[in-house]
Amino acid sequence: MFIRELLRRCETMRLTCIGSLVLLAMTQLSRAAATSERSSTISFTNDIAPIFVAKCLNCHGPEKSKGGFRLDSFERLSRAGESKSPPLVAGQPERSELYRRLTTSDADDRMPQKDDPLPAAQIALVARWIQAGARFDGTDAHAPIASLLAKLPQPDPPAVYRRPVPIQALVFAPGGEELAVGSFHEITIWSPNDGRLLRRIKNVAERTHALAYSPDGSILASAGGTPGRHGEVKLFDPRTSTLLKTLATLSDVVLEVKFSPDGTKLAAAGTDSVIRIFDAASGAELRRIEQHADWVMAVAFNSDGTQLASASRDKTARIFNVQTGELESTYTGHSAPVFTVAFSADGKQVFSAGRDKKIHAWEVKEAKKLAELGDVSDDIIRLQVMGDRLFGCAVDGKIHLYSVEARKQLRVFGEFNDWALSLALDAKATWLAAGDHSGAVMVWNTEDSTLRTRFIASPGANSAQASEGGAQAAKPGSVRNER
User: Against a cut of 0.85, is the pTM above it?
Assistant: First the structure.
Protein backbone atom coordinates (compact mmCIF):
# COMPACT_ATOMS: atom_id res chain seq x y z
CA MET A 1 0.00 0.00 0.00
CA PHE A 2 1.11 3.55 -0.70
CA ILE A 3 1.59 4.77 2.86
CA ARG A 4 3.38 1.63 4.02
CA GLU A 5 5.69 1.88 1.00
CA LEU A 6 6.26 5.55 1.70
CA LEU A 7 7.19 4.80 5.29
CA ARG A 8 9.55 2.08 4.12
CA ARG A 9 11.26 4.49 1.73
CA CYS A 10 11.57 7.13 4.44
CA GLU A 11 13.21 4.61 6.76
CA THR A 12 15.88 3.82 4.17
CA MET A 13 17.21 7.38 4.10
CA ARG A 14 20.84 7.44 5.26
CA LEU A 15 20.50 9.57 8.37
CA THR A 16 22.46 8.70 11.48
CA CYS A 17 20.01 9.63 14.25
CA ILE A 18 18.41 6.66 16.04
CA GLY A 19 14.67 6.48 16.76
CA SER A 20 14.00 8.25 20.03
CA LEU A 21 11.87 5.55 21.59
CA VAL A 22 14.53 2.87 21.11
CA LEU A 23 17.08 5.13 22.81
CA LEU A 24 14.60 5.81 25.56
CA ALA A 25 13.80 2.12 26.04
CA MET A 26 17.46 1.10 26.11
CA THR A 27 18.25 3.88 28.59
CA GLN A 28 15.49 2.68 30.88
CA LEU A 29 16.65 -0.92 30.49
CA SER A 30 20.06 0.10 31.81
CA ARG A 31 18.43 1.91 34.69
CA ALA A 32 16.18 -1.08 35.36
CA ALA A 33 19.16 -3.44 35.62
CA ALA A 34 20.86 -1.18 38.13
CA THR A 35 17.66 -0.69 40.11
CA SER A 36 16.79 -4.39 40.22
CA GLU A 37 20.14 -5.18 41.82
CA ARG A 38 19.30 -2.82 44.68
CA SER A 39 15.65 -3.70 45.16
CA SER A 40 13.49 -6.79 45.09
CA THR A 41 10.45 -4.77 43.92
CA ILE A 42 9.93 -5.01 40.17
CA SER A 43 7.99 -2.23 38.45
CA PHE A 44 6.10 -2.89 35.24
CA THR A 45 6.45 0.76 34.25
CA ASN A 46 10.15 1.12 34.98
CA ASP A 47 11.49 -2.40 34.51
CA ILE A 48 9.23 -4.47 32.22
CA ALA A 49 7.61 -1.99 29.81
CA PRO A 50 10.98 -0.81 28.39
CA ILE A 51 11.83 -4.43 27.47
CA PHE A 52 8.56 -4.91 25.61
CA VAL A 53 8.81 -1.56 23.82
CA ALA A 54 12.36 -2.22 22.64
CA LYS A 55 12.04 -5.88 21.69
CA CYS A 56 8.40 -6.95 21.29
CA LEU A 57 6.18 -4.05 20.21
CA ASN A 58 7.11 -4.14 16.54
CA CYS A 59 5.51 -7.59 16.09
CA HIS A 60 2.72 -7.31 18.65
CA GLY A 61 1.27 -3.82 18.23
CA PRO A 62 -1.70 -2.18 16.48
CA GLU A 63 -0.35 -2.66 12.95
CA LYS A 64 1.03 -6.19 13.33
CA SER A 65 -0.14 -8.70 15.93
CA LYS A 66 1.58 -12.04 15.36
CA GLY A 67 -0.39 -14.96 16.75
CA GLY A 68 -3.27 -12.60 17.49
CA PHE A 69 -1.36 -11.28 20.51
CA ARG A 70 -0.83 -7.60 21.30
CA LEU A 71 1.09 -6.01 24.13
CA ASP A 72 0.83 -2.33 23.22
CA SER A 73 -1.12 -1.77 26.46
CA PHE A 74 -1.18 -3.69 29.75
CA GLU A 75 -4.84 -4.51 29.19
CA ARG A 76 -4.05 -6.13 25.84
CA LEU A 77 -0.98 -7.84 27.28
CA SER A 78 -3.30 -9.64 29.68
CA ARG A 79 -5.44 -11.10 26.87
CA ALA A 80 -4.69 -14.49 25.28
CA GLY A 81 -3.79 -14.66 21.60
CA GLU A 82 -4.60 -17.44 19.15
CA SER A 83 -3.01 -20.02 21.46
CA LYS A 84 -5.81 -19.35 24.02
CA SER A 85 -3.21 -19.80 26.76
CA PRO A 86 -3.13 -17.01 29.37
CA PRO A 87 -0.14 -14.71 28.78
CA LEU A 88 0.21 -14.03 32.52
CA VAL A 89 -0.58 -16.28 35.45
CA ALA A 90 0.22 -14.31 38.59
CA GLY A 91 2.81 -16.07 40.72
CA GLN A 92 3.45 -18.80 38.12
CA PRO A 93 5.91 -17.90 35.34
CA GLU A 94 6.03 -21.51 34.10
CA ARG A 95 2.27 -21.42 33.37
CA SER A 96 2.43 -17.99 31.68
CA GLU A 97 2.43 -18.20 27.88
CA LEU A 98 4.45 -14.99 27.63
CA TYR A 99 7.28 -16.42 29.72
CA ARG A 100 7.17 -19.72 27.83
CA ARG A 101 7.57 -17.86 24.53
CA LEU A 102 10.55 -15.95 25.88
CA THR A 103 12.35 -19.07 27.04
CA THR A 104 11.53 -21.81 24.50
CA SER A 105 14.40 -23.27 22.49
CA ASP A 106 12.21 -23.48 19.37
CA ALA A 107 13.28 -20.50 17.22
CA ASP A 108 9.96 -20.54 15.33
CA ASP A 109 8.02 -20.32 18.57
CA ARG A 110 10.27 -18.00 20.56
CA MET A 111 9.76 -14.29 21.17
CA PRO A 112 11.25 -12.23 19.71
CA GLN A 113 11.35 -14.03 16.37
CA LYS A 114 14.07 -13.36 13.80
CA ASP A 115 16.17 -11.76 16.51
CA ASP A 116 18.46 -12.82 19.32
CA PRO A 117 16.76 -14.16 22.45
CA LEU A 118 16.36 -11.72 25.30
CA PRO A 119 19.41 -11.59 27.59
CA ALA A 120 19.18 -13.90 30.59
CA ALA A 121 19.04 -10.92 32.97
CA GLN A 122 15.94 -9.53 31.23
CA ILE A 123 14.22 -12.92 31.16
CA ALA A 124 14.95 -13.31 34.86
CA LEU A 125 13.46 -9.85 35.46
CA VAL A 126 10.23 -10.83 33.69
CA ALA A 127 10.09 -14.10 35.66
CA ARG A 128 10.52 -12.26 38.97
CA TRP A 129 7.81 -9.77 38.02
CA ILE A 130 5.33 -12.56 37.21
CA GLN A 131 6.33 -14.46 40.36
CA ALA A 132 5.62 -11.34 42.40
CA GLY A 133 2.10 -11.11 41.00
CA ALA A 134 2.51 -9.53 37.53
CA ARG A 135 1.11 -6.29 38.91
CA PHE A 136 0.48 -3.13 36.91
CA ASP A 137 1.75 -0.02 38.68
CA GLY A 138 0.50 2.57 36.19
CA THR A 139 -2.68 4.63 36.32
CA ASP A 140 -4.39 3.42 33.13
CA ALA A 141 -4.13 -0.20 31.97
CA HIS A 142 -5.53 0.83 28.57
CA ALA A 143 -2.81 3.43 27.94
CA PRO A 144 -0.13 2.59 25.35
CA ILE A 145 2.88 1.12 27.14
CA ALA A 146 5.05 3.53 25.15
CA SER A 147 3.39 6.35 27.09
CA LEU A 148 4.57 4.83 30.37
CA LEU A 149 8.21 5.44 29.56
CA ALA A 150 9.73 8.60 30.98
CA LYS A 151 9.37 11.61 28.73
CA LEU A 152 12.92 12.19 27.50
CA PRO A 153 13.69 14.69 24.70
CA GLN A 154 13.85 13.47 21.12
CA PRO A 155 17.32 13.40 19.50
CA ASP A 156 18.58 16.60 17.91
CA PRO A 157 18.22 16.91 14.12
CA PRO A 158 21.35 17.11 11.96
CA ALA A 159 22.87 20.58 11.88
CA VAL A 160 23.19 20.28 8.10
CA TYR A 161 21.29 17.72 6.03
CA ARG A 162 23.40 15.59 3.69
CA ARG A 163 20.32 15.07 1.54
CA PRO A 164 16.69 16.29 1.66
CA VAL A 165 13.87 14.51 3.47
CA PRO A 166 10.32 14.02 2.10
CA ILE A 167 7.91 16.88 2.83
CA GLN A 168 4.94 15.07 4.32
CA ALA A 169 3.54 18.07 6.21
CA LEU A 170 3.52 21.83 5.81
CA VAL A 171 1.22 24.64 6.90
CA PHE A 172 1.02 28.44 6.66
CA ALA A 173 0.93 30.45 9.86
CA PRO A 174 -2.35 32.41 10.08
CA GLY A 175 -0.68 35.62 8.89
CA GLY A 176 0.73 33.89 5.83
CA GLU A 177 4.27 35.21 6.39
CA GLU A 178 5.69 31.95 7.70
CA LEU A 179 5.54 28.36 6.49
CA ALA A 180 6.08 25.46 8.94
CA VAL A 181 7.51 22.27 7.42
CA GLY A 182 8.01 18.81 8.91
CA SER A 183 11.64 17.66 8.80
CA PHE A 184 13.75 15.00 10.57
CA HIS A 185 13.29 15.25 14.37
CA GLU A 186 12.35 18.91 13.91
CA ILE A 187 9.92 21.41 12.44
CA THR A 188 11.51 24.10 10.31
CA ILE A 189 9.99 27.56 9.81
CA TRP A 190 10.59 29.23 6.43
CA SER A 191 9.79 32.48 4.67
CA PRO A 192 7.38 31.68 1.81
CA ASN A 193 8.51 34.89 0.09
CA ASP A 194 12.09 33.83 -0.59
CA GLY A 195 12.65 30.39 1.00
CA ARG A 196 14.83 31.66 3.88
CA LEU A 197 15.10 29.47 6.98
CA LEU A 198 13.73 31.45 9.94
CA ARG A 199 13.70 29.06 12.92
CA ARG A 200 14.08 25.41 13.89
CA ILE A 201 11.87 23.66 16.46
CA LYS A 202 13.49 20.61 18.09
CA ASN A 203 12.26 17.78 20.33
CA VAL A 204 10.03 16.46 17.55
CA ALA A 205 9.34 12.89 16.38
CA GLU A 206 11.49 11.29 13.70
CA ARG A 207 8.85 11.90 11.03
CA THR A 208 6.19 14.63 11.09
CA HIS A 209 3.09 13.58 9.19
CA ALA A 210 0.81 16.52 10.00
CA LEU A 211 1.03 20.11 11.24
CA ALA A 212 -1.70 22.52 12.31
CA TYR A 213 -1.74 26.09 13.66
CA SER A 214 -4.36 27.24 16.12
CA PRO A 215 -6.55 29.98 14.59
CA ASP A 216 -4.71 32.73 16.49
CA GLY A 217 -1.28 31.34 15.57
CA SER A 218 -0.14 30.92 19.18
CA ILE A 219 0.11 27.11 19.02
CA LEU A 220 1.62 24.79 16.44
CA ALA A 221 0.49 21.15 16.72
CA SER A 222 2.52 18.28 15.28
CA ALA A 223 1.70 14.60 14.71
CA GLY A 224 4.17 11.92 13.76
CA GLY A 225 6.44 9.21 15.10
CA THR A 226 8.67 6.28 14.21
CA PRO A 227 6.90 3.45 12.31
CA GLY A 228 6.08 0.47 14.50
CA ARG A 229 7.62 2.00 17.63
CA HIS A 230 6.37 5.43 18.57
CA GLY A 231 3.73 8.05 17.88
CA GLU A 232 3.10 11.47 19.39
CA VAL A 233 0.97 14.60 19.32
CA LYS A 234 2.74 17.71 20.63
CA LEU A 235 1.93 21.40 20.99
CA PHE A 236 4.64 24.04 20.50
CA ASP A 237 4.91 27.79 20.81
CA PRO A 238 6.01 28.57 17.23
CA ARG A 239 7.47 31.95 18.20
CA THR A 240 9.83 30.65 20.89
CA SER A 241 10.20 27.06 19.57
CA THR A 242 9.34 25.68 23.03
CA LEU A 243 7.30 22.58 23.79
CA LEU A 244 4.03 23.47 25.51
CA LYS A 245 2.43 20.08 25.99
CA THR A 246 2.49 16.46 24.83
CA LEU A 247 -1.11 15.41 24.24
CA ALA A 248 -0.51 11.77 23.37
CA THR A 249 2.29 9.22 23.26
CA LEU A 250 1.32 6.08 21.34
CA SER A 251 2.88 2.84 20.17
CA ASP A 252 2.80 3.71 16.47
CA VAL A 253 2.70 6.70 14.15
CA VAL A 254 0.09 9.49 14.38
CA LEU A 255 -0.82 10.58 10.84
CA GLU A 256 -3.13 13.56 11.30
CA VAL A 257 -3.87 16.51 13.56
CA LYS A 258 -6.42 19.32 13.07
CA PHE A 259 -7.72 22.23 15.16
CA SER A 260 -11.44 22.96 15.25
CA PRO A 261 -12.36 26.31 13.60
CA ASP A 262 -12.68 28.03 16.98
CA GLY A 263 -9.41 26.55 18.25
CA THR A 264 -10.94 24.95 21.35
CA LYS A 265 -10.55 21.35 20.22
CA LEU A 266 -7.95 19.30 18.42
CA ALA A 267 -8.49 15.99 16.61
CA ALA A 268 -5.74 13.43 16.00
CA ALA A 269 -5.70 10.03 14.30
CA GLY A 270 -3.30 7.44 13.00
CA THR A 271 -2.21 3.85 12.63
CA ASP A 272 -4.05 2.54 15.71
CA SER A 273 -7.35 3.27 13.87
CA VAL A 274 -8.51 5.58 16.67
CA ILE A 275 -9.64 9.21 16.43
CA ARG A 276 -8.94 11.23 19.57
CA ILE A 277 -10.48 14.63 20.31
CA PHE A 278 -8.63 16.79 22.85
CA ASP A 279 -9.42 19.98 24.71
CA ALA A 280 -6.82 22.36 23.26
CA ALA A 281 -6.42 24.38 26.46
CA SER A 282 -6.03 21.62 29.04
CA GLY A 283 -4.85 18.79 26.80
CA ALA A 284 -7.50 16.47 28.24
CA GLU A 285 -8.83 13.75 25.96
CA LEU A 286 -12.52 14.49 25.47
CA ARG A 287 -13.50 11.75 23.07
CA ARG A 288 -12.08 8.52 21.69
CA ILE A 289 -13.70 7.24 18.48
CA GLU A 290 -13.02 3.64 17.46
CA GLN A 291 -15.18 3.08 14.39
CA HIS A 292 -12.62 2.38 11.66
CA ALA A 293 -11.13 -1.05 10.93
CA ASP A 294 -7.77 0.25 9.66
CA TRP A 295 -5.49 3.29 9.78
CA VAL A 296 -7.24 6.65 9.94
CA MET A 297 -5.34 8.71 7.37
CA ALA A 298 -7.04 12.11 7.69
CA VAL A 299 -9.72 14.08 9.53
CA ALA A 300 -11.45 17.40 8.87
CA PHE A 301 -13.82 19.63 10.85
CA ASN A 302 -16.79 21.30 9.20
CA SER A 303 -16.99 25.10 9.30
CA ASP A 304 -18.78 25.34 12.67
CA GLY A 305 -16.84 22.52 14.33
CA THR A 306 -19.87 20.33 15.02
CA GLN A 307 -18.93 17.49 12.69
CA LEU A 308 -15.73 15.61 11.94
CA ALA A 309 -15.04 13.75 8.69
CA SER A 310 -12.49 10.94 8.50
CA ALA A 311 -10.68 8.97 5.78
CA SER A 312 -9.35 5.46 6.33
CA ARG A 313 -7.40 2.63 4.80
CA ASP A 314 -10.52 0.51 5.39
CA LYS A 315 -11.89 2.11 2.17
CA THR A 316 -14.48 4.23 3.98
CA ALA A 317 -14.97 7.88 4.89
CA ARG A 318 -17.19 8.74 7.84
CA ILE A 319 -18.95 11.61 9.60
CA PHE A 320 -18.99 11.90 13.39
CA ASN A 321 -20.73 14.19 15.86
CA VAL A 322 -17.91 16.08 17.62
CA GLN A 323 -19.89 16.61 20.83
CA THR A 324 -20.89 12.96 21.33
CA GLY A 325 -18.47 11.03 19.13
CA GLU A 326 -21.39 9.18 17.56
CA LEU A 327 -21.21 7.97 13.96
CA GLU A 328 -23.62 9.91 11.75
CA SER A 329 -22.93 8.49 8.27
CA THR A 330 -20.51 6.26 6.36
CA TYR A 331 -19.50 6.65 2.72
CA THR A 332 -18.59 3.31 1.10
CA GLY A 333 -18.17 4.42 -2.52
CA HIS A 334 -14.40 4.02 -2.65
CA SER A 335 -12.87 0.82 -4.03
CA ALA A 336 -9.49 1.36 -2.36
CA PRO A 337 -7.95 3.01 0.75
CA VAL A 338 -9.00 6.63 1.35
CA PHE A 339 -6.15 9.02 2.14
CA THR A 340 -7.78 12.45 2.45
CA VAL A 341 -11.08 14.18 3.22
CA ALA A 342 -12.45 17.75 3.23
CA PHE A 343 -15.80 19.45 3.83
CA SER A 344 -17.26 21.90 1.34
CA ALA A 345 -17.42 25.50 2.56
CA ASP A 346 -21.14 25.23 3.35
CA GLY A 347 -20.69 21.89 5.13
CA LYS A 348 -23.32 20.13 3.02
CA GLN A 349 -21.00 17.84 1.12
CA VAL A 350 -17.68 16.09 1.59
CA PHE A 351 -14.83 15.36 -0.80
CA SER A 352 -12.69 12.28 -0.28
CA ALA A 353 -9.95 10.67 -2.35
CA GLY A 354 -7.18 8.12 -2.24
CA ARG A 355 -5.86 5.11 -4.01
CA ASP A 356 -8.73 4.79 -6.50
CA LYS A 357 -7.46 8.01 -8.15
CA LYS A 358 -10.85 9.74 -8.01
CA ILE A 359 -12.20 12.62 -5.96
CA HIS A 360 -15.63 11.59 -4.67
CA ALA A 361 -18.19 14.25 -3.79
CA TRP A 362 -20.91 13.00 -1.45
CA GLU A 363 -23.76 14.34 0.62
CA VAL A 364 -23.16 14.57 4.37
CA LYS A 365 -26.42 13.40 5.92
CA GLU A 366 -27.07 10.25 3.89
CA ALA A 367 -23.55 9.74 2.52
CA LYS A 368 -24.93 9.56 -1.02
CA LYS A 369 -22.53 9.97 -3.91
CA LEU A 370 -23.06 13.20 -5.83
CA ALA A 371 -20.25 13.22 -8.38
CA GLU A 372 -16.67 12.31 -9.23
CA LEU A 373 -14.12 14.99 -10.03
CA GLY A 374 -10.79 14.95 -11.71
CA ASP A 375 -8.62 13.23 -14.21
CA VAL A 376 -5.76 12.07 -12.00
CA SER A 377 -3.39 9.31 -13.07
CA ASP A 378 -2.24 8.25 -9.60
CA ASP A 379 -3.02 8.18 -5.86
CA ILE A 380 -4.48 11.42 -4.46
CA ILE A 381 -2.81 12.31 -1.17
CA ARG A 382 -4.26 15.61 0.09
CA LEU A 383 -7.36 17.75 -0.48
CA GLN A 384 -8.15 21.26 0.75
CA VAL A 385 -11.21 23.43 0.09
CA MET A 386 -11.38 27.23 0.04
CA GLY A 387 -14.73 28.62 -1.05
CA ASP A 388 -15.56 27.24 -4.49
CA ARG A 389 -12.02 26.00 -5.04
CA LEU A 390 -10.83 22.47 -4.31
CA PHE A 391 -7.08 21.80 -4.35
CA GLY A 392 -5.53 18.35 -4.47
CA CYS A 393 -2.01 16.90 -4.66
CA ALA A 394 -1.17 13.49 -6.03
CA VAL A 395 1.52 10.92 -6.66
CA ASP A 396 1.58 12.15 -10.27
CA GLY A 397 3.56 15.12 -8.91
CA LYS A 398 0.87 17.65 -9.82
CA ILE A 399 -1.30 20.09 -7.87
CA HIS A 400 -4.83 20.06 -9.29
CA LEU A 401 -7.40 22.86 -8.89
CA TYR A 402 -11.14 22.21 -9.32
CA SER A 403 -14.33 24.22 -9.20
CA VAL A 404 -16.64 22.76 -6.56
CA GLU A 405 -19.78 24.14 -8.22
CA ALA A 406 -18.88 23.32 -11.82
CA ARG A 407 -17.34 19.94 -10.88
CA LYS A 408 -14.47 20.43 -13.28
CA GLN A 409 -10.71 20.94 -13.22
CA LEU A 410 -9.66 24.55 -13.71
CA ARG A 411 -5.89 24.22 -13.93
CA VAL A 412 -2.80 22.25 -12.93
CA PHE A 413 0.00 23.95 -11.04
CA GLY A 414 3.70 23.37 -11.79
CA GLU A 415 4.67 19.71 -11.72
CA PHE A 416 7.11 18.26 -9.19
CA ASN A 417 9.73 15.71 -10.20
CA ASP A 418 8.45 13.33 -7.50
CA TRP A 419 5.34 12.45 -5.51
CA ALA A 420 3.45 15.52 -4.28
CA LEU A 421 2.77 14.68 -0.64
CA SER A 422 1.53 17.82 1.08
CA LEU A 423 -0.22 21.12 0.40
CA ALA A 424 -1.34 24.20 2.29
CA LEU A 425 -3.22 27.43 1.61
CA ASP A 426 -2.84 30.71 3.46
CA ALA A 427 -5.89 32.09 5.26
CA LYS A 428 -6.99 34.17 2.24
CA ALA A 429 -6.22 31.40 -0.29
CA THR A 430 -3.87 33.79 -2.07
CA TRP A 431 -0.86 31.52 -1.80
CA LEU A 432 -0.58 27.78 -2.30
CA ALA A 433 2.37 25.76 -0.97
CA ALA A 434 3.14 22.12 -1.69
CA GLY A 435 5.93 19.69 -0.86
CA ASP A 436 7.17 16.52 -2.53
CA HIS A 437 9.07 13.34 -1.73
CA SER A 438 12.37 14.75 -2.98
CA GLY A 439 12.27 17.51 -0.34
CA ALA A 440 11.23 20.37 -2.62
CA VAL A 441 8.70 23.04 -1.64
CA MET A 442 6.98 25.34 -4.16
CA VAL A 443 4.79 28.36 -3.42
CA TRP A 444 2.42 29.75 -6.08
CA ASN A 445 -0.03 32.62 -6.47
CA THR A 446 -3.41 30.87 -6.65
CA GLU A 447 -4.95 33.46 -9.00
CA ASP A 448 -2.56 33.17 -11.91
CA SER A 449 -0.40 30.13 -11.01
CA THR A 450 2.83 32.16 -11.01
CA LEU A 451 5.63 30.62 -8.97
CA ARG A 452 6.50 32.69 -5.90
CA THR A 453 9.48 30.62 -4.74
CA ARG A 454 10.98 27.16 -4.78
CA PHE A 455 13.42 25.72 -2.24
CA ILE A 456 14.64 22.50 -0.64
CA ALA A 457 13.19 22.49 2.90
CA SER A 458 16.09 20.72 4.63
CA PRO A 459 18.63 23.03 6.32
CA GLY A 460 21.87 23.03 4.35
CA ALA A 461 20.53 20.75 1.62
CA ASN A 462 20.07 23.59 -0.89
CA SER A 463 23.82 24.21 -1.01
CA ALA A 464 24.59 20.49 -0.87
CA GLN A 465 22.30 19.82 -3.81
CA ALA A 466 23.74 22.71 -5.75
CA SER A 467 27.28 21.38 -5.27
CA GLU A 468 26.15 18.04 -6.68
CA GLY A 469 24.86 19.68 -9.84
CA GLY A 470 21.23 20.50 -9.29
CA ALA A 471 18.38 21.07 -6.86
CA GLN A 472 16.49 17.87 -7.64
CA ALA A 473 16.70 14.95 -5.24
CA ALA A 474 15.24 12.49 -7.75
CA LYS A 475 14.99 12.29 -11.51
CA PRO A 476 11.56 12.45 -13.13
CA GLY A 477 9.85 9.09 -12.89
CA SER A 478 12.44 7.50 -10.61
CA VAL A 479 10.08 7.11 -7.66
CA ARG A 480 7.23 5.95 -9.83
CA ASN A 481 9.36 3.21 -11.30
CA GLU A 482 10.08 1.84 -7.85
CA ARG A 483 6.39 1.42 -6.89
Answer: no
